[in-house]
Structure formats: structure tokens, C-alpha cells
Amino acid sequence: MTLIHNPLDFSGIPIEANEIVSFLKQNFQIKEICQKILYQRIIETTAHEKGLIVTKAEIQAEEARLYREIRLEKNSDICIWLANQIIDLEDWETGIRNRLLAQKLANHLFALGVEMFFNLNASDFDQALIYKLVVPSAGLAKEVLYQIEANQISFYEAAHLYDIDERRRHQFGYEGKIYRWNLESTIATAIFSGRAGQVFGPHLAKEGHTLVMVEEFIPAELNAQSYQDVLNQIFQQWLAMELNYLLHSDKK
């Protein structure tokens, strides 16, 4: 496991651990990292109490699956890839073990409650196939919207030309299938009360001034993917509550 007592070697350039921590603080990322560390502690403690373990065989099977997924076949390719990620094999296998343990714990605690949770919150799992366009100014967003509504340009063409995100530009604004619960409440209400092909916005989001077009609405259905998504949501809510309890109990 890579312990950062010495400077981290980034392609021959040393980076001190305190530089990494300072950068995370300055960019408001340190809180999220600390939360994830405490989540892992909660998972470890609870899994131990429940007698849950991850075997070496399970780690190796998942490791092999991931290598196939990222198309790494030779040991030399794996070593190069790990070095490029600035981790060693132990870091990699520990990360796999932690994710598998979290999955086991989520299933152990909440698998029987997924269907009930889904039925009680079915509308939250309606999906929309969304295309998104983000530009840096309100004026440009309004101008692009005018061009789209006047049929001077399609939404896809506008996204390809104007979106600030390179990936979305190449994909003509494609954002993917989004659950209702993943959207801000006001935006979700507008989108799911609209019609396919309608353009919504502009509204100001974290990325910038945003236009959204829905290509398709997908009613909630409990299938293999949504089952896992529901389970993950319940598990994340539980982790947040456990962390809140931990933080407040430590102050008593």
C-alpha cells in the first residue's frame, strides 16, 4: 500500500502530502474526502459486527473482470497502468476489497427493503433521456435558445458548437438517462411536466448557464439496474445518518 510519508512521485515530479491536503482544502474538496474516509470506517465496523468478509477469490474474480473491462491482458500492461494511476497492486486490491465489502453490507442490510422503498418512491425513479448544453453567459444561452426555437439550428448542432464541456460537444450534448431524484426539484418538476423534444431553460447551474432537452421519458420500472440504484441510494442515506450520529455522539 502506498503510504505518503515521502513525496508522491508524479512522473518524476515530487509532490508532498501537505501540498495535496492544502490543494483539497483550497478547492473545497477536503470535506467530501473526509466524509468518504469516515463512511469506510462505518462500513468496516458494521461489516465486522455482521460477520461479513471478502475472500481473496472474490477479489481476484473482480480484479480479472476489471482488467477485461479496461482491456489489460499482459502483466506488463497492468504494471504500467497501475504506475500511471500512482498506485501499487496492494492499493488496487484494497480498493476492490472495500467496494465489494460495501456491496455485501448494502445487500445484507437493505436487500429485502428495496421493493418497498421503490414502490413508495416510484416517481423519483422516473427517468428522462437528456441532452444538455452549458454556456458561460446568460446572454449566449438566450441567443442559442432563440436560434433553436426559430429552427435556425438544432439542439444537437448547438451543443456541438457551443457547449463548454468537450465530451458533450463530441456527443452533441448527450448526458444520458437521469433519474428524477438526481435533478434539482424545480428543474425536475419542469422537465417531467413537459414533453419530449421540448427545450428547458436557460437556468443557472454549477457548470454555467444551461439548456436541457428531453429526448425520451422512461417510466419507473424495478429491473436489475434500478434495483441496484435503489439499493445504493438507501445505503448512501444510511451512511449519511450513521455519520451524522457519529459526529454528534462524539460531541456529547
UniProtKB/TrEMBL annotation:
Gene3D superfamilies: 3.10.50.40
GO molecular function (one): peptidyl-prolyl cis-trans isomerase activity
InterPro entries for the chain: PPIase_dom_sf, Trigger_fact/SurA_dom_sf
Residue spans crossing the bilayer: none
Entry protein name: PpiC domain-containing protein
Source organism of this protein record: Chlorogloeopsis fritschii PCC 6912
